[in-house]
Design brief:
By secondary structure, this protein is α+β, with helices and mostly antiparallel strands. The protein contains eight helices and 15 strands. β9 and β10 form a beta hairpin.
Protein backbone atom coordinates (compact mmCIF):
# COMPACT_ATOMS: atom_id res chain seq x y z
CA UNK A 1 0.00 0.00 0.00
CA UNK A 2 2.92 2.34 0.79
CA UNK A 3 4.35 1.69 -2.68
CA UNK A 4 1.04 2.57 -4.30
CA UNK A 5 0.84 5.89 -2.45
CA UNK A 6 4.42 6.74 -3.37
CA UNK A 7 3.77 5.89 -7.01
CA UNK A 8 0.60 7.96 -7.04
CA UNK A 9 2.42 10.86 -5.39
CA UNK A 10 5.20 10.66 -7.96
CA UNK A 11 2.60 10.62 -10.71
CA UNK A 12 0.96 13.77 -9.32
CA UNK A 13 4.37 15.49 -9.01
CA UNK A 14 5.24 14.55 -12.58
CA UNK A 15 1.85 15.79 -13.79
CA UNK A 16 2.26 19.08 -11.90
CA UNK A 17 5.75 19.57 -13.35
CA UNK A 18 4.51 18.89 -16.86
CA UNK A 19 1.58 21.29 -16.37
CA UNK A 20 3.90 23.99 -15.03
CA UNK A 21 6.28 23.52 -17.96
CA UNK A 22 3.44 23.65 -20.46
CA UNK A 23 2.05 26.77 -18.78
CA UNK A 24 5.49 28.38 -18.94
CA UNK A 25 5.59 27.69 -22.68
CA UNK A 26 2.11 29.16 -23.10
CA UNK A 27 3.09 32.30 -21.20
CA UNK A 28 6.37 32.70 -23.06
CA UNK A 29 6.90 34.35 -26.42
CA UNK A 30 6.69 30.99 -28.16
CA UNK A 31 9.35 28.55 -29.28
CA UNK A 32 10.97 26.93 -32.30
CA UNK A 33 9.15 23.74 -33.29
CA UNK A 34 10.99 22.57 -36.42
CA UNK A 35 14.32 23.38 -38.04
CA UNK A 36 15.23 21.85 -41.39
CA UNK A 37 18.46 23.09 -42.96
CA UNK A 38 20.32 26.13 -41.68
CA UNK A 39 18.72 29.06 -39.89
CA UNK A 40 20.06 31.88 -37.75
CA UNK A 41 18.76 33.66 -34.68
CA UNK A 42 19.90 37.24 -34.01
CA UNK A 43 19.24 38.17 -30.40
CA UNK A 44 20.44 41.55 -29.22
CA UNK A 45 24.07 41.73 -30.49
CA UNK A 46 24.74 37.99 -30.94
CA UNK A 47 24.13 35.55 -33.79
CA UNK A 48 23.06 32.00 -32.89
CA UNK A 49 22.45 28.77 -34.76
CA UNK A 50 18.72 28.20 -34.50
CA UNK A 51 17.63 24.91 -32.94
CA UNK A 52 14.38 23.17 -32.08
CA UNK A 53 12.75 23.97 -28.71
CA UNK A 54 14.57 27.31 -28.36
CA UNK A 55 12.34 29.82 -26.54
CA UNK A 56 11.65 33.06 -28.41
CA UNK A 57 11.96 36.64 -27.16
CA UNK A 58 10.76 40.05 -28.31
CA UNK A 59 12.90 41.55 -31.10
CA UNK A 60 14.37 38.16 -32.03
CA UNK A 61 15.33 38.06 -35.70
CA UNK A 62 15.09 34.71 -37.49
CA UNK A 63 16.55 34.15 -40.95
CA UNK A 64 16.54 31.01 -43.08
CA UNK A 65 19.01 30.05 -45.79
CA UNK A 66 18.16 28.70 -49.27
CA UNK A 67 16.45 25.32 -48.98
CA UNK A 68 15.71 25.70 -45.25
CA UNK A 69 12.43 25.51 -43.35
CA UNK A 70 11.58 26.67 -39.82
CA UNK A 71 8.36 26.41 -37.84
CA UNK A 72 7.60 28.71 -34.92
CA UNK A 73 4.83 28.13 -32.38
CA UNK A 74 3.53 31.38 -30.94
CA UNK A 75 1.11 32.14 -28.08
CA UNK A 76 -2.53 31.40 -28.85
CA UNK A 77 -1.73 28.25 -30.81
CA UNK A 78 -0.48 30.15 -33.87
CA UNK A 79 1.86 28.15 -36.12
CA UNK A 80 4.25 30.08 -38.35
CA UNK A 81 6.12 28.28 -41.12
CA UNK A 82 9.12 30.05 -42.65
CA UNK A 83 10.28 29.01 -46.12
CA UNK A 84 13.74 29.46 -47.55
CA UNK A 85 15.52 32.83 -47.67
CA UNK A 86 13.01 34.35 -45.26
CA UNK A 87 13.69 37.05 -42.67
CA UNK A 88 11.40 38.19 -39.88
CA UNK A 89 11.46 39.90 -36.50
CA UNK A 90 9.23 38.80 -33.63
CA UNK A 91 7.25 41.43 -31.75
CA UNK A 92 9.40 44.40 -32.78
CA UNK A 93 9.42 47.51 -30.68
CA UNK A 94 7.91 50.35 -32.66
CA UNK A 95 7.33 54.07 -32.31
CA UNK A 96 5.62 55.61 -29.29
CA UNK A 97 1.86 55.21 -29.35
CA UNK A 98 1.98 52.48 -32.00
CA UNK A 99 0.80 48.92 -31.36
CA UNK A 100 3.61 46.43 -32.06
CA UNK A 101 2.76 43.69 -34.58
CA UNK A 102 3.20 40.02 -33.68
CA UNK A 103 5.96 39.89 -36.27
CA UNK A 104 7.48 41.91 -39.09
CA UNK A 105 8.14 39.98 -42.29
CA UNK A 106 11.02 41.66 -44.11
CA UNK A 107 11.05 39.22 -47.01
CA UNK A 108 10.40 35.63 -48.02
CA UNK A 109 7.83 32.87 -47.54
CA UNK A 110 5.44 32.58 -44.60
CA UNK A 111 2.60 30.23 -43.76
CA UNK A 112 0.48 31.02 -40.71
CA UNK A 113 -2.25 28.89 -39.17
CA UNK A 114 -4.38 29.73 -36.16
CA UNK A 115 -7.85 29.26 -34.77
CA UNK A 116 -8.30 32.86 -33.65
CA UNK A 117 -7.09 36.26 -34.76
CA UNK A 118 -3.52 36.88 -35.85
CA UNK A 119 -1.83 39.70 -37.71
CA UNK A 120 1.56 40.84 -38.88
CA UNK A 121 3.24 43.55 -40.94
CA UNK A 122 5.58 43.72 -43.92
CA UNK A 123 7.03 46.68 -45.85
CA UNK A 124 4.15 46.61 -48.35
CA UNK A 125 1.13 45.41 -46.39
CA UNK A 126 -0.49 44.46 -43.11
CA UNK A 127 -2.63 41.35 -42.78
CA UNK A 128 -5.07 40.37 -40.05
CA UNK A 129 -6.41 36.81 -40.23
CA UNK A 130 -9.41 35.19 -38.58
CA UNK A 131 -9.36 31.40 -38.00
CA UNK A 132 -7.28 31.21 -41.15
CA UNK A 133 -4.45 29.44 -42.90
CA UNK A 134 -2.54 31.72 -45.26
CA UNK A 135 0.53 31.45 -47.50
CA UNK A 136 2.49 34.60 -48.31
CA UNK A 137 5.53 35.55 -50.35
CA UNK A 138 6.85 39.10 -50.27
CA UNK A 139 9.88 41.07 -51.33
CA UNK A 140 9.83 44.83 -50.94
CA UNK A 141 6.46 46.20 -52.06
CA UNK A 142 5.71 43.01 -54.05
CA UNK A 143 3.56 40.31 -52.51
CA UNK A 144 1.52 37.19 -53.24
CA UNK A 145 -1.08 36.13 -50.66
CA UNK A 146 -3.20 32.98 -50.78
CA UNK A 147 -5.99 32.33 -48.27
CA UNK A 148 -6.20 28.56 -47.83
CA UNK A 149 -9.02 28.77 -45.29
CA UNK A 150 -10.72 31.30 -43.07
CA UNK A 151 -10.67 35.01 -43.84
CA UNK A 152 -8.24 37.93 -43.74
CA UNK A 153 -8.17 41.71 -43.96
CA UNK A 154 -5.39 43.01 -46.20
CA UNK A 155 -4.22 46.63 -45.83
CA UNK A 156 -1.76 48.10 -48.32
CA UNK A 157 0.69 50.42 -46.66
CA UNK A 158 2.12 52.61 -49.43
CA UNK A 159 0.10 55.68 -50.32
CA UNK A 160 -3.43 55.95 -49.03
CA UNK A 161 -4.29 52.79 -47.05
CA UNK A 162 -6.33 50.38 -49.16
CA UNK A 163 -8.25 47.61 -47.38
CA UNK A 164 -9.46 44.36 -48.96
CA UNK A 165 -11.46 41.58 -47.34
CA UNK A 166 -10.22 38.17 -48.46
CA UNK A 167 -12.04 34.84 -48.16
CA UNK A 168 -10.94 31.23 -48.49
CA UNK A 169 -9.50 30.62 -51.97
CA UNK A 170 -8.72 34.29 -52.68
CA UNK A 171 -5.34 35.21 -54.13
CA UNK A 172 -4.04 38.77 -53.75
CA UNK A 173 -1.04 39.83 -55.77
CA UNK A 174 1.13 42.82 -56.50
CA UNK A 175 4.07 42.67 -58.86
CA UNK A 176 6.72 45.28 -59.64
CA UNK A 177 5.19 48.17 -61.53
CA UNK A 178 1.63 46.80 -61.47
CA UNK A 179 -1.52 47.61 -59.53
CA UNK A 180 -2.74 45.19 -56.82
CA UNK A 181 -5.22 42.52 -57.87
CA UNK A 182 -7.44 39.96 -56.13
CA UNK A 183 -8.48 36.75 -57.90
CA UNK A 184 -10.64 33.81 -56.90
CA UNK A 185 -7.80 31.31 -57.25
CA UNK A 186 -4.02 31.23 -57.03
CA UNK A 187 -1.98 31.25 -60.21
CA UNK A 188 -0.25 28.03 -61.32
CA UNK A 189 3.09 29.86 -61.19
CA UNK A 190 2.59 30.71 -57.52
CA UNK A 191 1.46 27.20 -56.59
CA UNK A 192 4.52 25.73 -58.31
CA UNK A 193 6.80 27.92 -56.18
CA UNK A 194 5.16 27.25 -52.80
CA UNK A 195 7.65 25.48 -50.47
CA UNK A 196 6.91 21.76 -50.18
CA UNK A 197 6.60 22.01 -46.38
CA UNK A 198 3.67 24.41 -46.86
CA UNK A 199 1.64 21.91 -48.87
CA UNK A 200 0.59 19.96 -45.77
CA UNK A 201 -0.90 21.04 -42.46
CA UNK A 202 1.73 22.48 -40.12
CA UNK A 203 2.19 20.03 -37.19
CA UNK A 204 2.06 21.44 -33.65
CA UNK A 205 4.88 20.13 -31.44
CA UNK A 206 4.18 21.90 -28.15
CA UNK A 207 3.55 18.70 -26.18
CA UNK A 208 6.88 17.21 -27.30
CA UNK A 209 8.80 20.28 -26.15
CA UNK A 210 6.84 21.08 -22.97
CA UNK A 211 9.73 19.95 -20.74
CA UNK A 212 12.58 21.06 -22.99
CA UNK A 213 14.21 24.44 -23.44
CA UNK A 214 17.27 24.26 -25.66
CA UNK A 215 19.95 26.94 -25.54
CA UNK A 216 21.00 28.14 -29.00
CA UNK A 217 24.69 27.88 -29.92
CA UNK A 218 26.37 31.28 -30.20
CA UNK A 219 28.11 31.99 -33.53
CA UNK A 220 29.60 35.36 -32.64
CA UNK A 221 28.76 39.05 -32.49
CA UNK A 222 26.73 40.60 -35.30
CA UNK A 223 28.52 42.38 -38.13
CA UNK A 224 27.02 45.39 -39.85
CA UNK A 225 26.25 43.27 -42.92
CA UNK A 226 24.16 40.94 -40.73
CA UNK A 227 21.73 43.70 -39.78
CA UNK A 228 22.15 46.33 -42.50
CA UNK A 229 18.83 45.53 -44.17
CA UNK A 230 17.01 45.94 -40.86
CA UNK A 231 18.60 49.37 -40.41
CA UNK A 232 17.28 50.40 -43.83
CA UNK A 233 13.65 49.72 -42.94
CA UNK A 234 10.98 52.24 -42.04
CA UNK A 235 11.74 54.61 -39.13
CA UNK A 236 9.13 53.14 -36.74
CA UNK A 237 10.91 49.78 -36.92
CA UNK A 238 14.57 50.77 -37.17
CA UNK A 239 14.73 53.60 -34.60
CA UNK A 240 14.29 51.24 -31.61
CA UNK A 241 17.20 49.17 -32.96
CA UNK A 242 19.71 51.94 -32.20
CA UNK A 243 19.78 51.34 -28.41
CA UNK A 244 19.79 47.58 -29.06
CA UNK A 245 22.84 47.56 -31.33
CA UNK A 246 24.76 50.78 -30.71
CA UNK A 247 27.30 48.97 -28.50
CA UNK A 248 28.55 47.25 -31.67
CA UNK A 249 29.80 50.63 -32.90
CA UNK A 250 32.85 49.98 -30.70
CA UNK A 251 33.86 47.50 -33.41
CA UNK A 252 35.68 49.47 -36.12
CA UNK A 253 34.32 47.36 -38.99
CA UNK A 254 30.74 47.68 -37.76
CA UNK A 255 31.20 51.42 -37.29
CA UNK A 256 32.68 51.82 -40.78
CA UNK A 257 29.71 50.03 -42.33
CA UNK A 258 27.20 52.12 -40.39
CA UNK A 259 29.07 55.34 -41.24
CA UNK A 260 29.09 54.55 -44.97
CA UNK A 261 25.32 53.98 -44.86
CA UNK A 262 24.25 56.97 -42.77
CA UNK A 263 21.93 58.22 -45.50
CA UNK A 264 19.75 55.16 -44.80
CA UNK A 265 19.75 55.58 -41.03
CA UNK A 266 20.86 59.11 -40.02
CA UNK A 267 20.04 58.41 -36.36
CA UNK A 268 23.30 56.41 -36.20
CA UNK A 269 25.49 59.46 -36.90
CA UNK A 270 26.30 60.13 -33.24
CA UNK A 271 27.66 56.60 -32.66
CA UNK A 272 28.95 55.75 -36.15
CA UNK A 273 30.71 59.07 -36.81
CA UNK A 274 31.20 60.81 -33.43
CA UNK A 275 33.89 63.17 -34.76
CA UNK A 276 31.76 64.27 -37.68
CA UNK A 277 28.74 64.57 -35.39
CA UNK A 278 30.70 66.80 -32.99
CA UNK A 279 31.83 68.99 -35.90
CA UNK A 280 28.25 69.22 -37.12
CA UNK A 281 27.02 70.29 -33.66
CA UNK A 282 29.80 72.89 -33.41
CA UNK A 283 28.94 74.26 -36.86
CA UNK A 284 25.24 74.43 -36.00
CA UNK A 285 26.06 76.20 -32.73
CA UNK A 286 28.23 78.71 -34.62
CA UNK A 287 25.44 79.32 -37.10
CA UNK A 288 22.98 79.89 -34.26
CA UNK A 289 25.36 82.39 -32.66
CA UNK A 290 25.81 84.14 -36.01
CA UNK A 291 22.05 84.33 -36.53
CA UNK A 292 21.55 85.66 -33.02
CA UNK A 293 24.32 88.25 -33.50
CA UNK A 294 22.76 89.35 -36.81
CA UNK A 295 19.35 89.57 -35.14
CA UNK A 296 20.75 91.69 -32.30
CA UNK A 297 22.65 93.92 -34.77
CA UNK A 298 19.50 94.42 -36.83
CA UNK A 299 17.56 95.25 -33.69
CA UNK A 300 20.20 97.76 -32.60
CA UNK A 301 20.32 99.31 -36.07
CA UNK A 302 16.54 99.64 -36.11
CA UNK A 303 16.60 101.27 -32.70
CA UNK A 304 19.35 103.69 -33.79
CA UNK A 305 17.48 104.57 -36.97
CA UNK A 306 14.32 105.22 -34.98
CA UNK A 307 16.22 107.44 -32.57
CA UNK A 308 17.86 109.37 -35.40
CA UNK A 309 14.54 109.88 -37.12
CA UNK A 310 12.98 111.07 -33.90
CA UNK A 311 15.70 113.63 -33.22
CA UNK A 312 15.62 114.89 -36.83
CA UNK A 313 11.83 115.28 -36.97
CA UNK A 314 10.90 118.95 -36.18
CA UNK A 315 7.49 117.94 -34.86
CA UNK A 316 9.11 115.92 -32.09
CA UNK A 317 11.15 118.90 -30.83
Amino acid sequence: MRLTKRSFGSFLLCLATLFASTLAWAQSGGFVGIVEGSATLIRQTTRYALAESVALNDQDIIETTPGAFVQLELPGGVLVGMGESTRLMLRPRVGKGMAPPSLYLLQGWLKTTGGGTFGYTSPGFEIATQAASTVVYTKGAQYEIFIESGSARLTLRDGAPTVSQLAAGDFAQRREGTTPTVARRATPEFLARVPRQFRDRLPARGEQFARRNAAPKALGEIDYADVADWLRTEPALRLPLLPLWKARAADLNFRAGAKADLAQHPEWEQVADPEGYARKLALEAERRRAREAARQAAKAAAAAAAAAKSSADPETK
